[in-house]
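pinned: reference chain
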Amino acid sequence: MSDAEDEIQVEGETEAVEVTTDAPRTGKMSVEEALQQVLKNALVHDGLARGLRECAKALDKRQAHLCVLVETCTEAEYIKLIEALCAEHKINLIKVGDAKVLGTWAGLCKIDKEGNPRKIVGCSCVVVRDYGVESEGLHVLLDYFKNR
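pinned: its C-alpha cells
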C-alpha cells in the first residue's frame, strides 16, 4: 500500500458552533458574584495573598489592589490590623460573611471528581495583588467602590 491510497480528502464546508456553559444573564452581576469572579481570575494569575502574614506584607508594601476580610473573625486585633492597613494605604476593603466561603473562593479546598469542593479550609483575609484579566466582575467591583 502506498501513502497516496491512505489519504482521504473530504470536501465540504465546516460550520463554527458556539457553545456557552452559562445561561444568558438577564441583569447585572451582583457584587458577591463579581467578587468571586475577580478572586478566581486573580488565583489563576497568581495574584492572591491568603492569610494574615501574606496579607499584612502585601498591604504594607502597597502591592494590594483589593482586600477581602471576614466579618465573623474571632480576633479583634486581626480585624483592627487589616482595617488600619487598608485605611492607611487607601486600599479598597470588602467584607464577606463566612470564612469557609472565602476559603473556597481563594482556592483553599480540594475539588472532587464531580467538581464539588471538599476539605474546605477557612480563610479570614485575602488580598488581590494582581487582578489577572479584565472582566465584567472587575468592572462591577470598581463601580461598587466608586459609588460607595
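why pinned: The helical segments are 3-6, 31-44, 52-60, 76-89, 99-105, 136-147. Strands lie at 48-50, 66-70, 92-96, 110-111, 117-118, 125-128.
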